[in-house]
Specification:
This protein has 36 residues and is mainly α. It has one helix at residues 8-35. The longest helix is centred in the middle third of the chain and has 28 residues, at 8-35. It is rod-shaped and about 35 Å long.
């Protein structure tokens, strides 16, 4: 939260992008290891 006053839209978008990517990869790995 140290960049809260700097660039809120950019920081928020980047954080959301990373979170979605992590969830996507995690879901793929979960499906792969459970249904192979």
């Amino acid at each position: 939260m140290y960049v809260y006053s700097l660039n809120i839209p950019y920081t928020f978008t980047e954080h959301t992008h990373v979170l979605k990517t992590t969830l996507y990869i995690g879901t793929l790995l979960y499906i792969y290891y459970n249904y192979k």
